[in-house]
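Q: Convert this sequence to structure tokens.
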Amino acid sequence: MLHSARSRERSRHSPRTALLVPALLTALLGPMLPAGTAFAATAPVTAPVAASATVGLPENPAGASTAVSATVTGAATVCGPEERTVGTLGPAVLGRGKVIMTVTGAALRDTDRVRLYTQDYRAESTTVSVSPDRRSMRVALDLTGAPPGNLHASVITHYGWEYQRSGVTVVAALRATAVPVVSVVPVVSGSSVVGGKVTASAGVWSPAGETYAYQWRANGAAIAGATASSYVVPASVLGKKLTVTVTAHRTGHLSGTATSAGLTVAKGAAPKATKAPVLTGTVKVGRTLTLNRGTWTPAPTSYAYQWYANGRAVAGATRGTFTLTKAQRGTKITVRVTAHRTGGLSGVAWTRATGAVAG
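A:
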């Protein structure tokens, strides 16, 4: 009875039972041995020590004048086209809480797992994903109750071997040391305005975040799609409190969040006429005058008109055209144009007065 062995990788291995199958031995060695030879597997052994087998020869083998012996070597390695290996495990510094770690190697499977432990504490991972080439995998661990300081680390493979790796250090989760600050462009009495652009700083964090995410909110409710550091304020949030929540991300740490102070959204600036409105047409009873409302910025969403005769409003004259009547004979005509913009203040401009209306 002979044994074969495989030296250990510099790690400690968990027990793995292995047996040499008698039927396989019969198929391989039977033709070379006397009739009546029997094969039996010995008691299970633990990997990486190889399995062994007993070859029982008949007491009086036919035609045999000398002793016969057989040697069977069974290597306790996992068969397959690619060598199973475990490489790196990281990161080396983890925050208390739910964390993600990465394992590299070859022929990794979703049943492989990471174990972090001390004499009095142990946490084991669940698999998040395995790369298509099976050379890296991401695993999740819950270190909420982990003691701060150093933990031993090992990777336990799907075939039962445990590879010890460099330990990890557990530190406190991310926390904010300064809340994000929101600056408003333009600033109107310290308030954000419809149509204005607001910008958030990330704030100051300890330890520093590697990346930051932003979520703008109106009266505490998340605004769909408002996830950049800058935000152009729409009319839909007029009168509401605008805040931004910043989330700091760092590998191996819980994400931290902080929310800015609220700013009440005010109406935006009124449109201004960059080209004044004018009247065209013959200023005579029975003739029709037409209003050109001019050019405005920012662009209004609607306009309103009121015609005047010698400064007195003409009842019902609120359209873009007006037909002069005898009531306006001898008067001078003007029009007030009001430009409205949703969420903003309204702008006003006047036409120049016409000459006196002829009869």
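The first strand starts at residue 17 and ends at 18.
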